[in-house]
Amino acid sequence: MKHRLSIPLIAAGATLAASIGLASVAFAQPDPDSGVMKQLKENGEAPVSAFADAAAKRAAALDADNDGVVTTEEMRAHHAKMREARASRRFPDANDDGVVSEVEFLDAARERFARIDKDGDGVVTKDEMPKGRGHRRGHKGSHRGDGR
Asked: Quick one: which of 21, 78, 15, 117 has its CA closest to 70?
């Protein structure tokens, strides 16, 4: 049986989830650089419709054949693509020779720096720094566990 999710249904679900305080549902999570997140940071709030719009855009991006529905296969393909992208960032072997040279390592570091340097001025401010995994999970301070 082929599983299908219609894009309007996904958007409606995101709207419902956001309206009852479950905005962290996967499709309802907006891109960190989107207008929704900007509104949240600046005003401390964003309209429910903004979450639905963000969810609809994300669902449309998943709909590889543009038929208005997201199938299980499309979702799996998207997840595989995301895993591959994460793996290439973690192990930046640009020429696929099985090792990371100094040049490959530094090129990857420059790309990461450029992504963080939102205004492209060659310096990264505290506001441009992404929140680390520990920060998102509520951890503070050292990751060593001994408080140092």
From this structure: 78
